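Marked as duplicate of an earlier ticket. Keeping the data here for the record.
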Amino acid sequence: MDVPRTAVCWFTPGVDGSWWYMGTLGSQVMCDNIPGLVNKQRQLCRQHPNIMQAIGAGIRDWIGECQHQFQNHRWNCNTHPRDHNVFGRLLMRSSREAAFVYAISSAGMVHTLTRACSQGELQSCSCDPNKKGSSQDAKGAFDWGGCSDHVEHAMRFSQAFVDAKERKERDARALMNLHNNRAGRKAVKRFMSLECKCHGVSGSCSVRTCWLALADFRQTGDHLRRRYNGAVQVAMNQYGTGFTAAQRLFKRPSKNDLVYFEDSPDYCIQDHESGSVGTGGRVCERMSRGVDSCEVMCCGRGYDTSRVSRTTKCECKFHWCCAVHCRDCHQEVDVHTCKPQT
């Protein structure tokens, strides 16, 4: 996705599937003129412009992660950078793709803010102040030290800001979004790990200093991708307060599951109403038998083959100390692309 850095400073998913952006103008002006925000969001926007800028700086990370997870699928988390809605009409449909987008974006906000707090980029937070004194784990006692990532602070702000609109609407789609937002936030916390440094004579590790650290966002992305695969199709319960499985044989969703209401389109052809851009022109693998195969990716329409020249680094040698020298190798390869719809 090619989003101009100066044009994007923050986003919020709305219940109607909108993704709104703030540019480089003053926070008061921009927060008051962004359509679709509820009063609570405008208030938080005005009060915390630095947090909004931090979120905007991290937007590429979670969109990039979404595109990594689906790079070989018909739906590849494609975006519309010139549209006020970065995913077009995709989020208007209560599909499992929409569920994933809400979850990964909520997780991305938490991950970005947690990192920003630990790195001293925000005045409102820093390292986790509760990680003081001594504690213990399976290896024994340790002292809290270093900088523990303050994920709880990031989760609270993300929940207050992102969920504000959903809590005002309180319809079926809002409940779906709230559920998937929460699943995304919990996924980040799930992969917090204890990192320690040993102290003692000759590395005896008689004393340990430890801190809690975020995992790489790829772990969160992998986890949510698995949740997408096992997403539960649901219906509203008779009280309108929660979900029940859409079919009797389906399991009841847990708090960690992604949930959706509507079946997904096949994404084979361009369809503005469903947000599908089709697979015409997509690169496919002729010899593959997976979802990236030309048969699956091109939906039976066939594919075109073109010969292209590629340059890669080859015959790399390590030279002491400390450089690696490579040759540029040129090769002709066949590239297969799906035929457009007729």
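See parent ticket for discussion. Confidence is low (pLDDT under 50) at residues 1-24.
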